[in-house]
Amino acid sequence: MAKIKFSSRYLSSIKSGEIEAKWNAANTRILRYMIDFWQNDLGLHKQVSAPEIYLLEIKVQELLIRWDKMADDHFHKSRLAASKEACDALTIEAVSKLESLRKILVKTLTVDDRVDWETLKDKLPYHGNANFPELAPKQVTTAKPIYMEPVIGFWEGLFGKRAAKLEDARRHYELKVHEWEKIQGDNLRRHQEALTQWNNRKSNFKLEYETAKAAFLAEQLAQNSSIDELALSVKTGDVRSVIEHASLVLDASDYEGLFEKSYEIDYQANPKLLLVEYDLPSPNVMPTLKSVRFTASTGEVKETYISDKEQRSNFDLACYQIVLRTLHELFEADESGNLDAVLFNGFSTAINPANGKNTRSCIMSLLARKTEFLEIDLSRVDPKSCFKSLKGVSASSLAALAPIAPVMEMNKQDKRFVDAREVISAIDTATNLASMDWSDFEHLIRELFEKEFASRGGDVKITQASSDGGVDAVAFDPDPITGGKIVIQAKRYTRTVGVSAVRDLFGTVQHEGASRGILISTADYGPDAHQFAAGKPISLFSGSHLLHLMEKHGYNAKIDLQAARKELNLK
User: What is the residue-averaged pLDDT of the chain?
Assistant: First the structure.
């Protein structure tokens, strides 16, 4: 599994888990990457998830920056002495936190919630060391011997020994020069060898530097290109991209450390409906400290807290503001017009007094239309009244954590899908596709297109035989440019396919909010069918196309329409 880079000023207090991958039902495509982080000093834990590794890395770093700020505050408090000045500072902070609860909504009204794609890009230069750390080897040299004229004594000159002594001196000098030249030659050879090795190391270092730099820039370019592709896919209304865009918007929402955000998002393209399941803060994590007083005579520090009634009131106020703030941020950031409405279901986890276990239940629900919501002046509303006027559903007191039936529930799994069944392995040259069992033929098409989409992580699912809305299979192609949701209809026909089947498919594509439709038949199509499909996001696969696709993936079969008609008539 890939690794991510992250940094923190309190790295020794940070613990991270391993990156995990959430696969689709067929275990052929990774839907999301997930990793857990803990801040041991603060007792914090959060699971971060994203559909791509580079987005996961961005989200992790944003989390750690937030945690670093909280750790700064935590250790600052710890260092404060028990003095009046320290207590006054804690009182000011407590009042500020209580005040921030009342400003949850108005704070976002001055913030541009649109995603700035450029800020998500990595624009840092490569910081590798380009300077080779070794100095060039120096050549070892020794001084050349100097000829020393011998001293000729009086008696040596008198008795004719001058010439012999000069000759001895000359031979001795020549021997020293010869030895010196040999040493110099050895030193030169050793220096050349050392210089060659040094140049080789320098060349390798430069090559490694250039390779690492090229890899860094290539990865940076790929990551930045992925961000551009994501931005483009958001503009085209791609389902996964719209979900990730909404996640980026909510991740960027700064609640100044009041609580850790957690939510799940889904999107329905046809009604342009974004669904948000939001984990509201627990009442026991809301700020309750009112003041800190220092008694000089005793050195005692006394903390005063708000009343239980005020705590319940603050919790209700915070939750109503969170709903309106979330809707405002999502609608304001929707520059591409992908959202006509947002469903907000707020959940809270509390201890069930009957069994002592944690119980998670929906305590508030609101379906807001964009056109109606944008008409509201949020700077002047009472959050609870505004929530109720939008037909939001909740108990009279949210602090009671009374569960309610949500306006609409997030459908996390399309119930039309059925388990896959392997068929293609039993196909051979004797198999007549035109006379196969209907169900087997649909599963054959699923397997075939699953292999076709496998190289880019696609997923193909079969729908139930009845009440499937005219859909035999649905393919999910993750390609941000050409992919999306693809509706597939498989027709085991023995006669020419008319325009009505193509027209029905086109209607299904529009109803499903799919990017494309594929009609597969064992027979051919009539001219009216081809004419209707022209210029529409529809592909027509005839029997010959189907056989060619099977051969591409290593399977051989046949289509004999006449034999199929006879065989089916016998049946």
Answer: 86
* pLDDT tens readout for residues 73-112: 888 776 655 577 888 888 899 899 899 999 999 999 999 9
Alpha-carbon span 474 to 418, nearest angstrom: 11
Q: Is residue 328 a contact partner of residue 387, using CB atoms and an 8 Å limit? A: no
Q: Which amino acid is at 511?
A: H
CB 291 within 8 A of CB 360: no
In the numeric block, which tokens belong to residue 296?
């000089």
217-270 pLDDT per residue, tens: 998 999 899 999 999 999 999 998 999 999 999 999 999 888 888 889 999 888
Q: What is the rounded distance in angstroms from the CA atom of residue 245 to the CA atom of residue 250? A: 9
Q: Residue 42: which region, alpha, beta or left (left: phi > 0; alpha: psi -120 to 50)?
A: alpha
Task: Name the E strands within 30-185.
Answer: 30-39, 44-50
pLDDT at 354 over 60: yes
Are 30 and 458 spatial neighbours (Cβ–Cβ below 8 Å)?
no
Q: What is the DSSP string of 343-399?
A: EEEEEEEEE-TTT--EEEEEEEEEEEEHHHHTTS-GGG--HHHHHHHTT-EE-S-GG
- 8-state DSSP, 400: G
**What residues have CB less than 8 Å from 432, skipping those under 6 apart?**
557, 558, 559, 560, 563, 564, 567
- DSSP calls for 32-96: EEEEEEEETTTTEEEEEEESSHHHHHHHHHHHHHHHHHHHHHHHHHHHS-SSHHHHHHHHHHHHH
**Residue 135: both structure tokens together:** 């100095």
Contact 437, 485 (CB under 8 A): no
- Helix then strand then coil, in percent of the chain rounded to 5, is 45, 20, 35
Which pLDDT belongs to residue 467? 35
- Sheet containing strand 473-477, strands side by side: 417-418, 459-463, 473-477, 484-491, 516-521, 538-541
Block residue for tokens 């907000």: 344
If one counts every other C-beta atom within 10 angstroms of the C-beta of residue 517, the result is 26
Tokens coding 79: 């260092």
Helices 239-251/308-333 angle, 10° precision: 140
SS3 (DSSP) at 534: coil
Are the CB atoms for 558 and 543 separated by under 8 Å? no
